[in-house]
Amino acid sequence: MCSECQTTGGAAITRTAPVVALLGRPNVGKSTLFSRLAGVHRKMGNWPATTVEVGTATITVDGRAIELLDLPGTASLSPISPDEALACDLVVDAGVDVVLTVVDASNIARCLFLLSQAREISAHVIVALTMTDIAERRGIHLDVDGLARELGVPVIPVIPRTGEGMDRIRTAIADAVALPHVPHHPVHFDDASEAAQRLTWVSAVMARHVERREERPTLTDRVDRVVTAPVLGSVVLLAVLWVVFQATTTLAAPLQDLLDRLMNRTIGGQVATWLQQLAPTAPWLRGLIVDGVIAGVGTLLTFLPVMSIMFLLLAILEDSGYMARAAVVADHLMRVAGLPGKALLPLLVGFGCNVPAVSSTRSVGDARHRILAGLVVPFTACSARLAVYVFVAGIFFGNRAGTVVFCMYLVSISLVVVGSLLFRTLFFRGVAREPLLIELPPYRLPTTKFVFADAWLRVRGFLQEAGGIVVATVLIVWFLMSVPLGGAGFAATPVADSAYGAMARAVAPVFAPAGFDDWHTTGALVTGFVAKEVVITSWAQNYALVDASQHFDRATLARNLRQDLTRSSGGHPDAAVIAFLVFLTAYTPCVATVGAQRREFGWRWAATGMVTQVLFAWAIAVVVFQALRALGVG
Amino acid sequence: MTLHALPVGGRARVQDVADQPLRVRMASMGLRAGAEVAMLVHAASGARIVRVGDARLTLARELAVAITVEPLHVQ
Question: ipTM surpassing 0.90, yes or no?
Answer without folding.
Answer: yes
